[in-house]
Amino acid sequence: MNDLQIVFQHSDFLIVNKPANLSFHNDKEEIGCFNQLKDQLEVNLWPVHRLDKITSGLLIVAKSKMAATQLGQMFEQHKINKTYLAISDKKPKKKQGTITGDMKKSRSGSWKLCHSKTNPAITSFKSQSIQAGIRLFKITPKTGKTHQIRVALKSLGSPILGDSRYGGTNSDRGYLHAFRLIFEWKGKSVDVQIYPDFGKYFLEAQTVIENF
What we know:
Strands 1, 2, 3, 4, 5, 6, 9, 10, 11 and 12 form a ten-stranded mixed beta sheet that branches. The protein has one domain (5-210): Pseudouridine synthase. It has five helices and twelve strands. By secondary structure, the protein is α+β, with helices and mostly antiparallel strands. Helix content is 18%, strand content 35%.
């Protein structure tokens, strides 16, 4: 088991690069990302937010209960700006814009997007073709609902490549990556980004991502 990559260190928290195909909590026989990190550093840590098993990229973990509470409130108040990268092999109904709608539980742990907007998930995106039949998305979720980005792209007709739960074509990974986090902490700006390091199409699109 390889050590998790720590991208940013602060006295109150750290930001780690979560690998794709690794659950946040323990999953059957596999130790989860959170416990793996605690074992690696041999310290107490507190969860702040989570990434789905298929999703790689930036994950904040707090070094105290107080920091976890404050950071969690910042997520709830949308004071932490998040940018994701995704790839689909299906043409979207539109190439950029905002997807807005309530989300309701569907079946077997899945979610669906509704036309109602009582407490909507809001997802802004733009996209660009990177090769024939393959499109890269840059996504900035304005809310933090479960499976929000995965459901939003499905609603566009462009389910994420490798995301079998939401109709994505089988691939070497689920092509969703938490690329960038920007927020203020104790009067100082934190701006961290990490490029995806796994996945054939992500690696082939590195130059495009850098200029996207």
